[in-house]
Automatic annotation (TrEMBL), chain A:
<dbReference type="GO" id="GO:0055085">
    <property type="term" value="P:transmembrane transport"/>
</dbReference>
<keyword id="KW-0813">Transport</keyword>
<dbReference type="Pfam" id="PF08352">
    <property type="entry name" value="oligo_HPY"/>
</dbReference>
<dbReference type="InterPro" id="IPR003593">
    <property type="entry name" value="AAA+_ATPase"/>
</dbReference>
<dbReference type="GO" id="GO:0005524">
    <property type="term" value="F:ATP binding"/>
</dbReference>
<protein>
    <submittedName>
        <fullName>ATP-binding cassette domain-containing protein</fullName>
    </submittedName>
</protein>
<dbReference type="InterPro" id="IPR003439">
    <property type="entry name" value="ABC_transporter-like_ATP-bd"/>
</dbReference>
<dbReference type="GO" id="GO:0015833">
    <property type="term" value="P:peptide transport"/>
</dbReference>
<dbReference type="GO" id="GO:0005886">
    <property type="term" value="C:plasma membrane"/>
</dbReference>
Automatic annotation (TrEMBL), chain B:
<dbReference type="Pfam" id="PF00005">
    <property type="entry name" value="ABC_tran"/>
</dbReference>
<keyword id="KW-0813">Transport</keyword>
<feature type="domain" description="ABC transporter">
    <location>
        <begin position="6"/>
        <end position="257"/>
    </location>
</feature>
<dbReference type="InterPro" id="IPR013563">
    <property type="entry name" value="Oligopep_ABC_C"/>
</dbReference>
<dbReference type="GO" id="GO:0016887">
    <property type="term" value="F:ATP hydrolysis activity"/>
</dbReference>
<dbReference type="InterPro" id="IPR003439">
    <property type="entry name" value="ABC_transporter-like_ATP-bd"/>
</dbReference>
<comment type="similarity">
    <text>Belongs to the ABC transporter superfamily.</text>
</comment>
<protein>
    <submittedName>
        <fullName>ABC transporter ATP-binding protein</fullName>
    </submittedName>
</protein>
<keyword id="KW-0472">Membrane</keyword>
Amino acid sequence: MTDAILDIRNLTVRFGSIAAVNDVSLTLRRGETLGLVGESGSGKSTASRAILQINRASSGEVHFDGEELVGAKGARLKALRRRMQMVFQDPRSSLDPRMTVGALLEEPQVIFGIGTRVSRKARVAEMLHLVGLDPAVANRFPHEFSGGQAQRIAIARALILEPELIIADEPVSALDVSIQAQIINLLVKLRSQLNLSLLFIAHDLAVVRHISDRVAVMYLGRVVELADRDLLYGAPAHPYTRALLSAVPVPDPHIERQRQREILKGELPSPANLPSGCAFRSRCPLYAALGKPEICSEKLPPLAKVVPGQSAACHFAGETDKVAGPSA
Amino acid sequence: MSAALLEVSELEVAFDTRRGRVKAVDGLSFRLGKGEIIALVGESGCGKSVAVKSVLKLLPEQTARYEAGSITLDGRDLLGLDEKAMEAVRGREIALIFQDPMSSLNPVLTIGKQIGEAIKRHQGGSRQEIAHRTVDLLRRVGIPAPETRLNAYPHEFSGGMRQRVMIAMALSCGPRVILADEITTALDVTIQAQIIDLLKSLVADAGAAVVMITHDMGVVAGAAERVYVMYAGAVVETATTEDLFSRPAMPYTWGLLRSIPSLDRPVHEPLVPIEGLPPNVALLDGGCRFRPRCPYRRDICAEAEPPLAPAPDGAEGHLARCWGLDPVRGWLRDTDWKTDLGDPAARAQISADAAKIKGGKP
């Protein structure tokens, strides 16, 4: 497939005996934004790091524009990495405090031997302008910037090599809401302007909905639902997705008061000691409502198509409505 | 309005810094009735955490100055109390729960010991009684098999469980007021929903009253009865939750509501950020404090700080701080905040200003 910029097949990342990412398969089409959501410990960050080969895969394949990344080393990996860049959650800790903004933005170009000193500086000015900063800030240090400004710098740094793929790991979750919207709008603008493919990782489902074309939901290392945005938010197929959506507070007191919440009982099980069969079983409202069907504890549900554009890893994906209320 | 349990009025708190005296809280007023949940909302640096600490007089004595205003609990003036009397108020009458339970729990003491310590200090009792009460508290906050968890250490608990432990500790002395400072911010959304539900049920059962400090408008909409929106140390708008969300009056509140990505918004509706950067309270210049980021500003906004005055909807207790709403000189009374985003030239100017750095640290 040529229109897939990123093709992840059966990716597993183990730390000791724990599979932080477990048999994950995802495809990111060129120009598409794929949202990756999940709670802490779901493996979304590990998966993203395994794409860039920061964490090494234990098994599985990651193809970037048709080239295998797993096992890639040295010059070949370096050349591939130039085409995919990462934006992290905390811009202050991802920018070296001792380097000026200009030096920070020049560095990737120096590493890849791009341009002359003069042309590199011109490129820095151009990038700063693109992310909404005054090019004159190039001789300032990261600590002089607010969180939102620093994230703009981190984005400029990621984009300066003209990558095709951006992996953004919780890029707005450390920012104030008024600033969050600035950065989301910036990413949306740059995405279309530069024809970027974007893997957008976040725990905030409302933010992900706003920016993504398709969304993958992870739970304990596995993708439990993968669907087009409107399907996932409009008619979630997996009970975990349903519960997640129902837990998100909505800034409208009328809606909040009338909402029937599906509050998940209990906590995430320890990844070292997962329930047999479906790992979500221990918290699953549907499992309880259906009278604990045996298949859930015996067989791992595969990620299977529910309707075109939507797959879920649940034996009873079509029956999520049964939880809504015993009276129905 | 019922009689106020906790009332803060016109509070001003300043800090002595190397660059002179900085007012972190400037004219904060709120009242909390029995069994009520109110919310202080605002972004980082707006003074909400300082406000909470000032209620308990937990600010550093060397640098913090109470410059004006009063804090009363059931009519008793807290600012006049000496340290010893304050100690009796803290925990027993007003309890505080912080955002990050891991750094507020002692990592080398067991959970049972830490909760027991609070009970022992404030209420006393035999070891057996204390253990019994501890188990009881853990059960009330929804910790499964509490008897077996007494000897566990904080690191053995998940974030949500630790927050429950913090709530149990806060409840241990049956406080009348709970100050909850961003208690769900560090938690995953499914756990967040559990904790909010717990807090609501505790208010209903135990009759405690809660001041929630948060930046999350969604949490506010679901839990609070009244909202105080803070900006740069001052309350800029207050109303019942209902009124605030259906008829927000002043531009900062509009901006907050427009910039939140929410599941109930039409998916293609773009987010409208508040342009510019949060202000440095040390550099306020006397006019309206939101003016540097306000696309509806006019000349008068630079001249003087607007008073917290009745909002145009006339709803009881709906107050807002904005010259644009002034009954005589105002120009914003009929503005449709969802469609009129203010003067485009002003918006452009604000983002151009934000692209630069002004002298000194932001």
